[in-house]
Amino acid sequence: GAWIGAGTVIGRACRIGANARLHPNVTLLDDCEIGERTIIHSGTVIGADGFGFAPRKPSGWQKIAQLGGVVIGNDVEIGANCCIDRGALDDTVIEDGCKLDNLIQVAHNVRIGEDTAIAACAGIAGSAVIGKRVQIGGASGIAGHITVCDDAIISTMTLISRSVTRPGFYSGIFPSMENAQWERAAAIVRHLPELRKRVRQLERQLAAGEPRDAAATRAGPASAGNRAEDRE
User: Fold this and answer.
1) What is the pLDDT of residue 231?
2) Minimal CA–CA distance to 110: which of 89, 124, 95?
3) Is-catalytic flag, 108?
4) Mean pLDDT of all residues in 107-124
């Protein structure tokens, strides 16, 4: 049978598989299913309401009932103090063999494919679909309603805001540096669309055979913002 630690709460209509282990102070709310040999560490809450609210006029929020459950497969391990929310209509699903570190948020209607591993402090927003054998680094964020394909690897602290359709190693980290240097780099990033436009104009003019100096003159002087950056 399953092993249930002290202080663990199990709601109505839950199913817990053979040889599952729920450590002390796990909360398993109504209509949740835990597979065989699955381990859930202390403080984790499974089946809390998903974050579903609709705006009301002129102000305020209307709670949307969360009617789904949570289904967790066989041989899954979930670390301490994770939150796995129930689905709005369909179930939130974590398939067989997944490994979740501590302090992970899995929002409503998420589906995580088998043998996926997720490091601490990652967050997966509602209705995202994570493929099989995906590796998600710590403190990464997955936006809602997107898909991450099988065998993708996501680096630490990366934000995935669009679907990942090809396996590979994905990073989206702004590197740390001294604050003054970071502020200069951020100022340049803000002007990238303008710089891109100027470079394209220069390329067209050079392709047309204009001398480089003439092309640069026709591209116009740098903006005040860019001149300020040059002085820095």
Assistant:
1) 46
2) 124
3) yes
4) 99
The single residue of 23, 41, 108, 145 carrying the catalytic annotation is 108
Q: What is the mean pLDDT of the chain?
A: 93
CATH code of the domain covering residue 27:
2.160.10.10
Q: Are residues 186 and 148 in the same domain?
A: no
Domain range spanning residue 98? Answer: 3-170
Q: Are residues 50 and 123 in the same domain?
A: yes
Of 133, 128, 134, 135, give the one whose Cα is nearest residue 105: 128
Query: Quick one: 52 and 138 in the same domain?
Result: yes
Q: What is the 3-state secondary structure (H, E, C) of 69-120?
A: CEEECCCCEECCCCEEECCCCCCEEECCCCEECCCCEECCCCEECCCCEECC
Cα 57 to Cα 10, 48, 62, 64, 65: the distances in Å are: 38, 27, 10, 16, 19
Task: For residues 223 and 43, give the distance between their C-alpha atoms in angstroms, rounded to a whole number.
Answer: 54
Q: Which of 40-54, 111-125, 199-213 has the lowest mean pLDDT?
A: 199-213
